[in-house]
Batch of 4 targets.
Target 1
Amino acid sequence: MEVVQVLHMNGGVGETSYANNSFVQQKVITMTKPIMEDAITKLYCSTYPEEIAIADLGCSSGPNTFFVVSELIKAVNSVRQKICQKSPEYQVFLNDLPGNDFNTIFRSLSIFQNKLREQLGPGIGPCFFTGVPGSFYGRLFRKNSLHFVHSSYSLQWLSQVPRGLENNKGNIYMASTSPPNVLKAYYEQFQQDFSLFLKCRSEELVDGGRMVLTFLGRRSDDPSSKECCYIWELLAMALNDMVLEGVIEEEKLNSFNIPQYTPSPAEVKYEVEKEGSFSIDRLEVTEVNWNAYQNETDLSDAFKDGGYNVAKCMRAVAEPLLFSHFGEAIIDEVFRRYREIVADRMSKEKTEFVNVIISLKKA
């Protein structure tokens, strides 16, 4: 599987699109907002730059793309008004892999810019947007050209499926039944990728530049613990059932593995310190329920169904990978079964995603 070519969230604004099924991700960004505001405020107050270049890496498409940018600009604008400083100009780079739905982003750009001007008034400086397709496991920008880098729920995705997973049979990710070599291969791929990410960003950020990165991660030292792997184990259950019924070939399932690694805070910290370009300002861990709508009011009957919500969220993320490997014919049936399995487990167990958030300053 060529990850760069097939990894992207479901595009458009339809029922199974990422734009309409990314409420979990929005909640995580909202939870991280104080850390983002703190970082960009410190950046701005250190030199009061006349222009600020912001990169959102793994921006995807939909409301979350502009939500991050909006909150960062609002934070700077609030500070500069208090000290009667002229607004800086903003250059915003929206990055994701080439398969990302950039068209939906650009179609809604003018609406966002008009709304931002209405909210912040005529004193706000101009804001220029650029789409940057490409992998962040490589250079994307000129040297010393960025002031602030943000990435949320993207860096757990690996540049490729680790090599040597042939004996991970019946699993589609790390699992309690995965052999030790599988866990080792996943961790080593994460180390290689994240180290390269840090190296590239250190070249692109100005001295004193900041990054706030949020990983889907885990608290446990065990990379195959339920808190990070369970959501995929349940999808593997649906696929294995379809193998037993002859709908999917066993060989096809055994050759499918998710290109993701959910790190612990200690693993993230270790790679940052080993690479050496950044100092750690903050390192925090939070949780969010699998069903982001759990405590919401005024929901339609469909959205009161936790299994339905989680299955749609995961479909928006995983469908392109499954489609590429298994074909279109199985997709609806896989997620119908997955919804039932997830609903059953959520009724019996505590189900939460763990978020590892790190705020960094270029040393």
Note: The radius of gyration is 21 Å.
Target 2
Amino acid sequence: MAAKSCQDGHPAEAFGWAARDQSGVLSPFKFSRRATGEKDVAIKVLFCGICHSDLHMIKNEWGISSYPVVPGHEIVGQVTGVGSKVEKFKVGDKVGVGYMVGSCQSCDSCHDNLENYCPETIVTSGGKYHDGATTYGGFSDIMVADEHYVIRIPENLPLDAGAPLLCAGITVYSPLKYYGLDKPGMHVGVVGLGGLGHVAVKFAKAMGIKVTVISTSPKKKQEALEHLGAHSFLVSRDPDQMQAAMGTMDGIIDTVSTMHPLFPLIGLLKTQGKLVLVGAPEKPLELPVFPLITGRKIVGGSSIGGIKETQEMIDFAAKNNITADVEVIPMDYVNTALERLSKSDVRYRFVIDIGNTLKI
């Protein structure tokens, strides 16, 4: 039974996998998507990354989920149809859809190409569209999206390894740019070497920045230095290592989404350094004010990026051969993948091969 009647402008039969309750277990799900409107692009989904926020949504860990939930917002595919007023895309183009599919288009944030900060941002999965319909994500065979929120994927960017850039990539690219941590010769720390952290290292290196990976796990050292090419590695639980690096960094991108102390990280910053949080711990972190005052340091945050900047990021990635390190999986492996993701057992991003393995 389709989730919404194929009346009311939702005639496009769709098929995907959805969570029905807080267990977060996904299973096959038939539903429908809206007709391709005059400014819409219809997309055959080929690959979709699995983000940690998908895990939060399917288990209602943020308290905002409305079931059924079809997750997925790192979506790449091929255009199969365009509305009569679409100007940017044509049938056959390779495209992507990230974390959002709508915004008000009239507020200051929207006017400044910061749709991600619009109070009426419509998220790709688990949101409410303008017509009141629930938004279903990319763990499905087709998508329909307003062309404004669709990203062009350059020909030389692999679709599977490029998919996670639509969330993980822009989440670290945007703060590097906005906080001025993109100047060659700067020294930037990256806290956490997961889905976000590993692409942060790649983007920072491509910008000509000296990168230090900061991790609780000494086991990540070889990976950080030899595989990802970071310049140095710090074990955050080693007081001697941390002390030796005090006051050496222009900025830090903190990707960790669990509880952790900020005081040692603030100590690593130079005077006027910037600690930027992009991970989202479920509980508030303790913020020591004294070192901020005495060093004129900043603790800031950042969330994905606007559509214009997301396109800029994808183009930069293609030019510099930046992709995520991915494990491509079939659709029917997704529940095992989600269990593994909850234990951080992935290097570094799962990507579902929707096009070849999603079967009704």
Note: The first strand starts at residue 12 and ends at 19.
Target 3
Amino acid sequence: MEVWPSPLVVILTLCVVSPCCGLEAVAKNVTVAQLLPMSSYHGGLATYNAKNFGAEGNGTNDDTKALMAAWKAACGASGTVTLLIPPGTYYIGPTKFHGPCKASAITFLLQGTLKAATDLRRFGNDWIEFGWVKDLTVAGQNNAIINGQGAASWPFNKCPIRKDCKVLPTSVLFVNNQNTVVRDIKSVNSKFFHIALLQSKNMKLINIQINAPVNSPNTDGIHIERSTGVVISDTHISTGDDCISIGQGSDNIDIARVHCGPGHGMSIGSLGRYVGEGDVTRVHVRDMTFEGTMNGVRIKTWENSPTKSLAAHMLFENMIMKDVQNPIIIDQKYCPYYDCEHKHVSGVILKDITFKNIKGTSSMPVAVLLRCGVPCQGVVLQDVDLKYMGEGGSSSKCENAMATYVGYQHPEPCA
């Protein structure tokens, strides 16, 4: 996996000596954007301060147009550029930070809080959108926060019970980007998904903090779809739905050192619901901790898929489960609604999937559930130790799994 550079943070330590003005020598840390009113340059690096484009950052006045104006200036500049959002609370509605940019690399540096409008009539499918940008870094400093103010919207979310529901806005959508780094950002109380990656290539998300109440509907932490070369690491997610979900058409996904809980766990899918879905391949998830979640690692596909697809070449290893309802689960009869008839077989073929070194406790007796539609191919469980503290201990349940077992196994494998 190619490693992208750390985000560009333009910070200068200046010792200003000005005998012309009679000033004493002063040593002070200042951001370059504080030195000149509109933009400044140092060593070919330009910084644009959003406040110099009319952003007030008082948490009340609408700063949408000001932030988009600052982005337009930064995106249109030459060389390596930083757009600085200094300390403050910036109340904004739907905001699009689109390219392509003239800048060879651009950093969106958030030092304050972005606060979403609450009037759903203002929104389409997302709130903040970074799109069609190459070599983008979105970085936070000073406990930077993206606040979706979702509590007012959650009662209007009917997706958990209706297939034809109106989708609420995702907090941050990355669409058609290449070579992106997102780091040191906190996202709270999204209306729907917190962060979504769509048709993006080569992305790294590092040290992301995501928080929403356990009863907040569809507040997935990070959703990946039709993207390739995605790395997520050193991240903490507490939410009301999947901590991380990997949707159709995704390839080469690497996830490491993520704490998940509460929430619904780590999911591949759901897959197989729509016509023309792409395959999900080469997923490596390791060193995760699940605490009080509904699921641990889960693969979920719909029955009666309109077209065939593949979910293959996946390794889940070194997982710690703490009081998790379904620590290991393959569910090819996924349906969250009440009228599911389970008459059809999923059109998603599962192949070459390994669960390795999965340990901890299950809050339900069935700790390993492998429910395949057509027989799964190449499912391996290696060194699994999952205990249920209630009566009877933990057990396994399988359907068309044809799994291979290696090393220590608790619960006992399916007969």
Note: The domain at 45-196 is CATH 2.160.20.10 (Pectate Lyase C-like).
Target 4
Amino acid sequence: MEASENMSSLNFSNGFLPNDLIILILSKLPIKTLFRCKLVCKFWCRLPSEKYFIDLYSQTSSKNPTLLLEIICTLRTRSSYICVDRFSGGLGVSLDFLNDRVKIRASCNGLLCCASTRNRGVYYVCNPMTREFRLLPRARGRAITRCQPEYEATLIGLAFDPKSWKYHVALAGFYRPFGRRPHDQLVCLVLDSDTNVWRRFVTCQFDEFTHMNRNQSVFANGLLHWLTYSCSHVLALDLKDEVWMKISLPEEIVASGLVCRVYLLELEGEVSVIQMSGCWMNIWVLKDHVREQWILVDRVHLRCIRGLATNAFPMCQTSDVVFLAAQRKVLTYGRKDKVWREVYAEQDSSTYPLWFSAHAFQSTLFPCNQGDFLE
């Protein structure tokens, strides 16, 4: 179906360019530039609110991934945020519209799930590009804040499906009675954006997670995925049936043990792991969840970044490019032209390593606050 048919309610014609071409051009603009263009005419003003254009914009931006960096400085009380792409460098992003001090805990297809650092158990889902947000309701029943560690859910996942315009938020943690060691009960809360209500279930499960693999969750095939500390398997949550499952990693990764580093990423709708072993970067993709079938899709030699390879962490990727965050630099590797590039460098030596709080990101116009419920 043509774009003009989807936008027929606007009844616009400028006599020079067809609607389809105008829409295609506007869908490639940065969001800030697109919003400035709303002043041109009624047609351009209404365009960012039309579902067809929002879907088209998401499809276009998915081909231009970015890395969202939280710049944490030991000398400042508040963090700053920068969006880095492979063409124009860094662009400042603000979360001040939340009117709260927050920490980004999950990112999915342009939306963020943020946890308040002032009020435990308070979470937001927001779109930093449109500055819209939803304050999630407080969870009922046994408090998730009694889960360890940090009095916060161990695992936080955000699953946003741009096709259905729905998202889920998952909080999971190991329940710890006061003054005792954690039980092997994994308490999980799942919120559906349609109902805005938490569903709670408990399962017997116990796995350990580091800071990095707790924050790197991947949504694919209706499941949220986390990489365990042992790097022997992936823990996956089926959001529909509310069950946990384990997916074994490739035998080559498991056999290498602690010799290699492994990172869980998403690759154009599929689960992927990147293995950093010696001077090689191996990219694997999970082709079959049921059979646990992994395929090696790329193998990259790290000789060109030999001085940074030991502290370069893969953060996001597409079939064209891989983003890696190091101590104070962001690198990209072109998978087609085989070229390494430095796209961002942090000059302040007092900041935390850039990989410490980096998230895969892409621009979206999705109105995440639509259908808010009154508390």
Note: The two ends are 40 Å apart (CA to CA).
